[in-house]
Design brief:
By secondary structure, the protein is α+β, with helices and mostly antiparallel strands. It has four helices and eleven strands. Helix content is 26%, strand content 37%.
């Protein structure tokens, strides 16, 4: 199991992850096949980084290498949100190309970075995932969702409103008060 932590403050985003890549044994246990490979990919063009869990390798294909290849192709002027949606579409096409069976396509990718709102750089976390729920047993289609506003308001704000300026500015205000998200 992968551990990823993203902490937002008024001055930075701190991102950490373990480096274990495992395979499931026939007896249901796990064997560590990699312990040094980072699961964090910097995206300096967007003031962001990607981190992942779940599907790390499929044959000779690796999520890490694929993410690196996607960050090299970033077009100038693209927003963090547009990048997250493009990444989801590219990953869906990659899974089709590789013919990865649905039951093996469990993956999650965090895109953490900054978006400019009212002249302020405000942190955001986008989740791209096939997982439904937190037990990682239910796998569906790839989806993109925002999560920073949720950390403050939980269910009191509709997910369709998470990107609205008024709520993004409340994230900024909360961070300026010294809160960590």
């Amino acid at each position: 199991m992968t551990v990823i932590a993203a902490i937002f403050s008024q001055s930075c985003i701190a991102l950490a992850s373990d480096s274990f890549i495992t395979e499931t044994n026939p007896n249901g246990g796990h064997t560590i096949i990699e312990s040094q490979q980072s699961k964090i990919v910097p995206i300096p063009q967007l003031r962001a980084a990607a981190s992942y869990w779940g599907l790390a390798r499929y044959g000779t294909w690796s999520t890490f290498d694929w993410l690196i290849s996607r960050t090299i192709k970033i077009k100038s002027g693209i927003s963090l949100e547009a990048f997250a949606h493009n990444l989801k579409d590219d990953l869906k096409n990659e899974f089709l190309r590789l013919r990865i069976p649905n039951q093996q396509s469990g993956i999650g990718i965090h895109i953490t970075g900054y978006e400019q709102v009212n002249g302020y750089w405000i942190p955001e976390l986008f989740l791209i995932s096939t997982f439904r729920g937190t037990d990682y047993s239910n796998i569906g289609e790839l989806e993109v969702s925002r999560h920073t506003v949720w950390t403050i308001f939980k269910e009191s704000v509709s997910p369709s409103d998470y990107g609205k300026q008024e709520f993004r500015m409340q994230v900024h205000e909360r961070l300026q008060e010294g809160s960590l998200l």
